[in-house]
Queue: 3 jobs
Job 1
Amino acid sequence: MTSPPQHLTLPEFCESRYETSGLYDGLESVLHAISSGAYALEKQIRNGNLAGILGTTGEVNIQGEIVQQLDAISSDTFVQEFKDSGRVAMVGCEEIEHPVSFGETEKHNYIVLMDPLDGSSNIDVAVSIGSIFGIWKRDQQKALNAESLLRPGIEQVAAAYVVYGSCTVLVIATEGNVDEFTMDPATGMFHLTSTDIKYPDKTPYYSVNDGNTARWTNGIVQAVDGLRNGRSQRYIGSLVADFHRNLIKGGVFLYTADTKNIDGRLRLMYEANPLGYVSVQAGGEVSDGIQNILEITPHELHQRAPLILGNKELVKKIREAIKSS
Ligand code: AHG
Ligand code: MN
Ligand code: MN
C-alpha cells in the first residue's frame, strides 16, 4: 500500500484510470452512483437517531431477517442511483426478492449485485456498518432476467464497498488494483487516500463469531485453535468493517457452516463474491473451505455460502485443517 502524492478526487481518478480502457466503458458512472448514494446514506446514518429512522420496519425480508428502516432506505437509495446512472441494466439486492431492471440499451452494460446495508445489528448502537457491491458486465447476447445473473464471481469486472466508520471510506477493486477513497463530509467528495492496497505479510487479527463454537465441526474448531495462537480476535459483526480492518492491518475472517447455518450465514452473491474479488486483487484468497468462492456457479440469487476470507497463508491453513479432520 502506498500513499498517493495528491488526493485525487474520484472523478479525476476515474478519468486517469479508466478513460483509456475499453473494458471499463461507463464504469465511472456506476462508481459515481455508489459514491453519491454513500454520501446521501452517510448523512441519514449519522442523523438516524434524531430523524427517527432507527429500528425496524416491522417486515421480514427474503432472507428471513427483520428489516431495519436503514436497510430499506439504503436499498431504495442505491436502486435509484443505479437507475439514474443510465449504465446499470439490472440490480440484484439482498433486500429485494426479484432483481430490478432499468433498461437494455447498449449503454446499460453493467449489472450490480449488492448488500446495501451490511451490519444491520450494529445500526442502532453507533458501530461501523457498510455497503457492498459486485459489478458485472451485462452479457448483451443473452436475455436479461434473474437467471442470467447466476454467474460465477470470477466474472465480476469490479467490486466496491463503503465503510461508514470513524470516517467514511470507499474501496474500489478492479483487475489487479485496490484503491481507497475517503469522504470529505463537508462536500461528499471522495478523495484517493491509499492506492495499490495489498494485504500486509503480518497477520495480527482473526475474526470469527466464537459463540458458534459448539456448532462447528472438529476441523473448524482445530482451524480456529490454530488462529488463536499469538493473534488478537477482532469481531465487529459487520462483515465489511471486519474485512476492511483485516485487509489494511492483516488477518482473516471466517463464517463457516455449522449445525444451525448448514449452508453458512453470509450471502454468496451480495457479500462473499464482491469481498472475495477485492481480497484476491489485494493478494489474498477467498474460499468456502473446499473451493475458491469465485468459481462457484450459483443456483439461486439469495443463496448462502460458508466464507473464509483474507490473508492467503491463513486461508490455506484453515482449508488444510478442514480437509485433514
Ligand atoms: P446483514 O446486516 O447484511 O444482514 O449482514 C450481517 C452479517 C455480517 O455483516 C456479519 O458478519 C454477520 O452477519 C454477523 O452475524 P452474527 O451476528 O451471527 O455473528
Ligand atoms: Mn451483510
Ligand atoms: Mn444487509
Note: The chain has a mean pLDDT of 96.
Job 2
Amino acid sequence: MTKSKTVYVCQNCGAESPKWIGRCPSCREWNTYHEEIIAPANQKASSFISGQVRRKPELLDNIKADEKNRTATGISELDRILGGGMVGGSLILIGGEPGVGKSTLALQLALSLKNTTILYVSGEESEEQISLRAKRLKNSNPLCYVLCETELETILAHSEQLKPGLIIIDSIQTISTTMLESSAGTVSQVRESAAQLLKYSKVTGIPVFLIGHITKDGTLAGPKVLEHIVDVVLYFEGDNNYVYRILRSAKNRFGSTSEIGIFEMAEAGLREVNNPSEMFINQHDEALSGISIAATVDGLRPFLIETQALVSSAVYGTPQRSATGFDIRRLNMLLAVLEKRAGFRLGVKDVFLNIAGGIKVSDPAIDLAIVSSVLSSNLDIPVSREVCLAGETGLSGEIRPVSRIEQRIREASKMGFKKIYISKFHKGISLKGVEIEVVHVGKIEHLVRGLFG
Ligand code: TYD
Ligand code: MG
C-alpha cells in the first residue's frame, strides 16, 4: 500500500499548494483552499482506456477529417452554436446556474437524437424522475439508456458494453473516479474525471456532453477549471423568473463563438425561438409613452427588443434609479448626458428602466432606444410604434456608429418597421431591396427633434 498524499487545492481556480493558505495567489480569492487526498494512480484504472488503443504518430496529410463527421442534434438552436452539429470525439460542457434548464436540455437532446444509442448518466436524479421528465417533454427515443451512477469507472465499463453514439453526464460535479480519494465535486475529482472522459471520447470517437453547475458566487468546484480541458464550453443563461433562456458559446474548437441559441421554457420543455424579435416586442393596442424598440445584435444574431422607462418626480430627497437587464452605471451616464447636453432636468426624477423578457443586453447600440424611452416618459409623448433605433451615445451627446448596422436595418424592415434612427457617421450602407426609411442623427438634439417634433 503506497502512502497517499494530501494537497490543498483552491476550489475556485484549481491552484495547488502543499500547505493551507488564506488567499489564493493565483486567483486572489479568500478562503478557497480545501484539503484533498491524492491517492497514487490506480494502475488498473488508468490502463483501462489507454491500454487498449495505443496511438501512433500519423502524417498530417494522411489524416482524413471531413465535415461529415458532424451529427445534427435534432435541436436546431443547439446545432447553430455548435457550428452545425456535434463533432465525433468532442467533449462539450454545458454550464449554468441551478434551475436554468440544463437537465431539461440534455434530456431533450437525448430524446430528439433518433437512431442513435444514447447513454444518459445521471448522478443527481433517479430513473423515475428522469422518466417523469421524459413524459413531460412528450418525446421518446427507444434507444435512450438511463444510468444512475456516479463512479466514472463503472460508467465507462457500461459504455464499453453499450457502445453508444452519445454520452450525456449530468452533472460532472457528482462524478468521481477511484483514482483519487477525495470526494466528488472537489476540484481534483472534477478535473480528473473530465480528463478521463476526454481521453475516452477521443479514443472512441463518442461525443460526450458534460453538465456543470455554477453558483452565483462561484464557490463550487465549477466549470471554470474545466474550460481548458473540454472542446466546447456552452453557458446556459436566463432569469428563473422569466421564460427565456440563452445558450452562449464561450469556447468552440470546431466553430465560432459568436452564435447564440434562444429558447423558451414552456410546460413541455424548452421550445426553440427561431424568431426572437417576435418574442421581445410586446403588443400594445395604443402607443404608450416610455416605450421604444432597439435593433440589437447578440453574437451574430440581430433582434428587436423593447425597452421601457418610467420617469416620475422623486418622492424622496435622493432620486431612485433602477434598471433591469441593463447596466445601472450606464443608465446613470446616459441620464447625465441628457441633463448636460440636451437640457433635460432629470436629476430630480426617479428613473426606472426595464428590458422586455428578462434579457440582459450589453450591446451599446441599445443606448439610443433607452434615451428615447426615458425622454418619451419624461415628456409623456409616445414614440411611434413604427420606429426603431440603433446607436451608441457618447459622453458629449453624439450618436456613434455601431457594428453590423445593415443586419439590424434588415431585421427592422423584416419586422415591419417603417423608420430606423442610426448614427449619421455610418457611411456606404448598401440596402438593396430593403424598404425602410433610414434617419441619420448626429446628436441627441437631432433625435429629440425627430422623435418628438
Ligand atoms: P432543470 O432542467 O432541472 O434545471 P437544471 O438542471 O439546470 O438545474 O429545470 C429547471 C426548471 O425548468 C424547473 O424549475 C422546472 C422547469 N421546467 C419547465 O418549466 N418545463 C418543463 O417541461 C421542465 C422539464 C422543466
Ligand atoms: Mg439538473
Note: Residues 102-103, 124, 170 surround magnesium ion (ligand 2) (CB under 6 Å).
Job 3
Amino acid sequence: MSSDEFVVDKLVVIGLGLIGGSLAAALKNARACREVVGIARRRETCRQALAMGVVDRAFTSLDEIAAELDGGDLVFIAVPTLAVEGVFAQIRDRVSQRVTITDGASVKGNIQAAAVKVFGHMPPQLVLGHPIAGSEKSGITATNPTLYENHRVILTPTPELDGGHLQRVRAVWERVGAEVLELSVAEHDEVLAATSHLPHLIAYSLVDTLANDAENENIFRYAAGGFRDFTRIASSDPLMWHDIMRANRDSILKALDLFSDNLAGLRSAIETDDSEALMGVFTRAKAARDHFTRMLAKQAYSNSMHKQSIAFRIQAGGSVCGSIRVPGDKSISHRAVMLGSVAEGITQIDGFLEGEDALATLQVFRDMGVVIEGPDRARVKVHGVGLHGLRRPPGPLYLGNSGTAMRLLAGLLAGQDFDVELSGDESLSQRPMNRVADPLRQMAAQIDTGAGGVPPLKISGGRKLRGIDYTMPMASAQVKSCLLLAGLYAEGMTRVTEPAPTRDHTERMLSGFGYEVTREGSVAALRGGGKLTAIDIDVPADISSAAFFMVAAAIAPGSDLTLTHVGINPTRIGVINILRAMGADLSLANERSVGGEPVADIRVRHRPLRGIRIPQDQVPLAIDEFPVLFVAAACAEGETVLTGAEELRVKESDRIQAMADGLQTLGIRTEPTADGIVIQGGSLGSGCVDSLGDHRIAMAFAVAGLRAAGEIRILNCANVATSFPGFADTAQRVGISLEIYDT
Ligand code: S3P
C-alpha cells in the first residue's frame, strides 16, 4: 500500500479524548483516511479538536450526522466503558452491515453483553478492540499522533464477526504503527484485570489512604521517587476507571483476592519477623520484574523474535593473547541450585553462571517456593527447604533451551507429592526425553511426554518411587544424574551403570552435601531417604566455555593465552587430551581443588596442529567441545576422524550436520557419518553460516574467523547467552574481531 492510500474513507470517532483523538490524528498524519468526523459531548472539545486539526468536522450529538452515519466506513467508539451501550443504542438503526464498528474500551465482556442487549445479537460488523495506550493523561489536549507507534492493540473477535470487518480494523491499527494481537474476550478481561485494572485500583487506594490520614498531613511534601513512581496512575480519569471497575467486576475481584492474600502474608511476615518469607516475596518479585524489564528491552530469553535476529560478523585473522577467566561451569551451576534447594540450611554459591540455562533452573526453584537471593556478581544464596519442602508451582515450569535442567529436574520432581509440567523452547521441545522417562517409569514414576517422547513432560506427584538397577544404553551424565536425584526419593538402592565414564558432578556434589554416594567401577549408587546439608560452593570456570579460547589460541599464529580457574574434573578433560594429541602447546599450572572439584590455569600457545583419529573413550569427556574441536581439525594438517559420537546429533542442534554444513560453506571438506565425521584440514574461506540457534555452533565459527581468508557471518547467535554471557566482549578483549549485528 502506498503511503497515501486510504485504509478508510470516512472515519467517525465518537468520543474525542486521548484514545479517539490520537487515532484520528494518527490516521490523518499517515494520510490513511479521507475525512474524520468527531463527536464530543462538549462544544469546547469540538472546537479544540477542529483547531488542532484532529478532525475535519465536529458535532456535539450523533443526531447531527444521523443521515450520513451510514455513509462512513468506520465508526470508532472511544467513550468511557459504561457509556458504550448508549452509543450502540444511538447508532443501531443508522448503520447498515457495511459499516465497521469498533471500540477502544478496556473491558470487552461487558461491551459484548451491551451489544447483544441493544442489537439483539452480536453484530457481524462489530470488532471489539482495546488499544492498551491509556495513561494518566486524558482529554483532547492529550492527543498524540504517535501514541500507537510500536504499541500493542488487542482485538477480541467473536464467532459472529465478519472477516472483512476484522481485516479493516487490523489495517487501521497497523497503519498507525501498532502491533495487533488477538485474544478471546474472556482471556482479555482476565489478563487486563491483573495487569492493568488491579494496579490502578491499588494506586488509587494507596493515595486515598494516605490523603485521608489526618496525622500524615505532611506526607506528600516528603514523598519521594517511590511514591511518585507507584502512584502516577492515580492521576488517571476517575470516571473511566470507575466504569472499568464495574464493567470487569468478576475478573477484578479474582485478582484482588489473590493480591489481598499476598498482602496478608506480608503483613504477618512483618508482624512475626519472618525474614525468610519477606525475602521470598521480594526476591521472587524482583526476578519477575527484572525479567519483564528485559522483555521490554527485548533481551529476555522468552523473546524468541529477538533470538532470531542477533548475528556475529568476524573479521579474518588475528591472534589471541592475555589472561581471562570465563564464566562459571554450567553443569555445576545447575546442580548447585538444585541440591541447595532441597538441602537443609543456606547454600552460598560463588562463581555461579549467570547464563540463561542456569537462570532458568534458578527461576523454577523460586516458582517452587525456594527463596534464592541473587545472582549478584555471580553470588547466589539458596535457602534450602529440605528434600520434602518444595511447593507445587503456580504453572508449567519453563526451562528455555536447557536439556540438562529438564532431564535432571525430571528425576528430582518424579518423587514429589505435586504434579508438574516441564516445557522448553523450540530446540528443547524436539529433544529426546524417553531416555529419562523410561527408567523413571521403571522406578514407578508417572510421566507423560509429547508424541515421540519429546517435551513437555507431565509428571504426576504422589508416587512412591522404588530404587532400580539401571544400565544406560548411552553414556549420559544427564540420565545418570536424573536417576540419582530420583533415587533420593526412592525406597532402597538406585544403581546406575554407565557404558563409559561421564561427568560426575552430581556424585561429587551430593557427597559434598553429606549424602553418601558409592562408586564401584562403572556403577554409581545411592540409597533413598537421607538428607542433604547445605554447604558453600565455589563454581570453577567452565571448561566447555574455555574450550573456545583454547582452540582459538591453538590455531591462531602468535597466540599466547591463559585461562584461569578452569575446572579440570577428569570426566571433562577430553578437550585437553584431544588438543594435546593433535600437537597443541597446552600447559596446566596452579592445580588445586575447590570444593571437591579440581581446577587449574591453562596456558595455550599457538603451534601447528595435525589431524588425528579421536579415541572413542574421549568422546563422553569432550561431548560439548566437538563443535570447536571440528574447527581445530579444519585448521590441522591432514585428516581428523571422529566415531562413536552419535549423541552429537541430539544436542541443541544436530551438531554433526550443523558443523559439516558450516565448514563446507567455508571451503573445508567434511564427510558426516551416522556417529561422527571425517574432516580434511585445509584453508578456511569466508561466508555466511547458520548456527541454527545452537550456542556452541555459533561460538565455534566465531573462533574459526581467526584462520579464515575473509569475513565470516554467523546467523542466529542469541542463544550464546544460554551458556556464555559476555562471549562477544571476551572474544574482542583477547583479539578476535567480532561484531554483533541485527539481522
Ligand atoms: C551435561 C551432560 C551432557 C552435556 C550437557 C551437560 C550435564 O549431556 O552435553 O551439556 O550437565 O550433565 P549428556 O549427559 O546428555 O551427554
Note: Residues 310-325+542-742 form a domain with the UDP-n-acetylglucosamine1-carboxyvinyl-transferase; Chain fold (CATH 3.65.10.10).
